Amino acid sequence: MSLLVVGSVAFDSVKTPHGEADEALGGAATFFSVAASLLYKPIHLIGVVGDDFPDEIVKLLEKRGIDCRGLEKAKGSTFRWKGRYEGNMNTAVTEETCLNVFGQFQPKVPEEFKKPDYLFLANIDPDIQLDVLRQVKRPRTVAADTMNFWISSKLDSLKKLMAEIDLMVLNEGEAEMLTGKSNLISAAREVIHMGPKVVIIKKGADGAMIVDSSHMAHVPAFPLETVMDPTGAGDSFGGGLMASLAKAETDHTDFPAIRKAVANATVIASFNCESFSIERIKTVTMKEFDERLKILREYSSF
Amino acid sequence: MSLLVVGSVAFDSVKTPHGEADEALGGAATFFSVAASLLYKPIHLIGVVGDDFPDEIVKLLEKRGIDCRGLEKAKGSTFRWKGRYEGNMNTAVTEETCLNVFGQFQPKVPEEFKKPDYLFLANIDPDIQLDVLRQVKRPRTVAADTMNFWISSKLDSLKKLMAEIDLMVLNEGEAEMLTGKSNLISAAREVIHMGPKVVIIKKGADGAMIVDSSHMAHVPAFPLETVMDPTGAGDSFGGGLMASLAKAETDHTDFPAIRKAVANATVIASFNCESFSIERIKTVTMKEFDERLKILREYSSF
Q1: Residue-wise pLDDT tens digits, A97-131
Q2: Average pLDDT of A257-286?
Q3: Residue B253: is its pLDDT beyond 90?
Q4: How far apart are CA B118 and CA A271, in angstroms?
Q5: Which of B218, B297, B298 sits opposite A220 (nearest CB)?
Q6: Where is B39: in which H helix or E strand?
Q7: Is A108 on the interface with B (CB under 8 A)?
């Protein structure tokens, strides 16, 4: 099984009630890959960085089983994002976004990556997501994420994309914005009506809901007393999800397999929240992962 | 086992995106009792109504096994509340509160009710909650609810009460307001530090979290596609909770018993949301209850 992700690689400057980080490694494809590679290898990554991007980071990623042959190095600066979290830290306040080389990104899927079994189209212009989908042989499962910006500015393209994917990952606010429904079950049904067979609605500290045409399930967030920095939690969640599906031997449309993958994704996302950047998540062991999964299962079963 | 509740009995006028009700039966003690009586009988109710309160309602409550000998009839009008819900319906917007006879309420616990095994002090002035607690032989389990108004206006009394109870039921916003902690686990620990052995934080459509000094658990809300009116859901939750504890044969400090009681409470609260007033909840059968509990268990286990 091969697993391909397309998305941003960035440097984040983040301030939270617990500290701050300056130009730390970030980006959806980064968080996704580092999280996914705990459970599955190799991960094929497609993204773009500037000529300021250190080779050491690429080496670190490759050492984790993240194949970076699709990580283009362009002339210019790497994507920078600056933001902060306050209060319950559920929503990031963006202070500055410098797309830099990511602004002109036209992903070219390397020949070796053209037959992915699992494809994750991280949050990016839906036209680019569609373009990547066109470049590959139809994968077994295609999942996509998006954000409010594309819902308001490129709804037609997003809908075109949604008609062709299997699994949509959205947060609560995006689900409401996309469907006009404030009830999450109604919103999920509306998303499924737009194409995806399964929708996963991420609710941050309130967990995730999984809906397909005939099932519903809920997985609570792993109970964390200190959230250092939630940046990348959703992308780590995506990485844990897709890696679990790639690893699973059941059919990918099997609802219990997706639910189990969401539980794994939840656990991985919890580690992501315990540090800035990938600091915590890159050190997680399978023993730590298994322990936390056991706690999560006990936490949510009655 | 005897179960006693002290709280309001009222007439509610409510507007939601799905309809409206005018002067329909409401009040914390009402919702609590009607919900509890599905699982356990008798319920001893202490409250006050005005001389405008129809005897037929009292008869209806008594028919359900709600002993209304503690329901005082005072000269004047019954408590009236008017409010509305918008959007995701998570918070009520109060339009009018007429305390009427409830404003001078000085509960007198009848002799026959003075040895409750389980006592629920519904949301009311904490001085009154304390006063009721003083009037009875120390129950096996005392639980209390409160609201933002008392947290800001009578914090000292509330803290005095909290030092004497076993179980505190709060919503998310109240937990944060009371403790100054936006992380719910930290908030729960702080509440426990104030006295209660167990705290249950209600998160509306996002379920409930249960915390004691050595355990944590989460129960999602029952997935409802249409919420007609959430008024009374928290009180029905309290009723389901206490009735389950009274019914259970395990020791009340047993964490699995409390978690099971919260699951039962969640199911009962879901019926509450499906109509205005007690219309739906008064018709629920044990068969319907059991079916929904089974769905909830499947929904949250993996």
Answers
A1: 999 999 999 999 999 999 999 999 999 999 999 99
A2: 97
A3: no
A4: 41
A5: B218
A6: helix B28-39
A7: no
Say which of A176, A185, A220 has its CB closest to residue B223. Answer: A185
Q: Which ipTM value was assigned to this complex?
A: 0.91
Report helix, strand or coil for B246.
helix
CA B68, CA B59: separation in Å to the nearest integer? 9
Tally of CB atoms within 10 A around A51: 11
Q: Which residues of A148-178 are buried (b: 16+ CB within 10 A; e: fewer)?
A: eebbeebeebbeebbeebbbbbbbbbbbbbb
Determine which of A184, A218, A254 to mutate to test the interface with B (most B C-beta atoms within 10 Å).
Answer: A218
Put simply, whether A256 touches B (Cβ < 8 Å) is: yes
**Chain B: nearest CA to A101, how far in angstroms?**
37
Mention every residue, 6+ apart, whose C-beta is less than 8 A from residue A195.
A159, A162, A163, A164, A165, A168
Omega within 30 of 0 (cis) for the link into A107: no
- CB proximity A214 to B under 8 Å: no
Residue ranges and CATH numbers for the domains of chain A are: 3-300 (3.40.1190.20)
Q: Collect all residues with Cβ–Cβ distance below 8 Å to A214 and sequence separation of at least 6.
A: none
Q: Going by C-beta distance under 8 Å and a sequence separation of 6 or more, which residues neighbour residue B16?
A: B84, B85, B89, B227, B228, B229, B230
Nearest-CB residue to A223 (from B216, B226, B227): B216
Residues written for chain B: 302
CA A67 to chain centre: 17
- Residue A103, chain B, CB below 8 Å: the answer is no
Strand, coil or helix: B251: coil
Contact B183 A227 (CB under 8 A): yes
Mean pLDDT within A174-182 = 96
CB contact under 8 A, B218 and A216: no
